[in-house]
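Q: I'm writing up a methods section and want to include an example of the input and output format. Could you take the sequence below and give the corresponding predicted structure tokens, formatted cleanly so I can copy it straight into the document?
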Amino acid sequence: MKDSILNGKSILAVNDNPEILAVLEKEILQSCRKCTFDTATTFKEADQRLASFTYHLIIVDIMGDYGFDLLQRALIKKIPVTTLTVRPFNLEALKRSFETNAISSLPKENLGEVVPLLEDVLAHKHLPPWKRPIEKLKRFFDLTFESDPAKGGRPFSTGKSMKLMK
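A: Here is the clean output for your methods example:
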């Protein structure tokens, strides 16, 4: 098993549902035993933890205005933020991610994929927030559409039409 970039890092997860926090804790600590994982179920508790401790990454469920306030406080401290979303990735989620300046979003139904997402966030935190979703979309289109010129396809980056893979 490879060593995770999350080992030695501190993560704060904020959600009003203790079951979601328990799943996140299990998923993260199972893969990254040397990671510090803190939780908060209220804005006040999260705000106190953010003021008292240094975190490398925050996972936050946007719960009304308080969630956006917490998100802004984390971003002011230059802490990468991953938001939990109710729905899987869609254009509305992408738009909301841009508007909030969150680094990434994770649908709650995909909590089992949290570790690779968080590793990606920390490995690429120097990228502008808008560039990571574009790179992910490019990979998606490269996998979905034929982009190998040797097979009659065209590269995605040219903006020309592509053949659907069979």
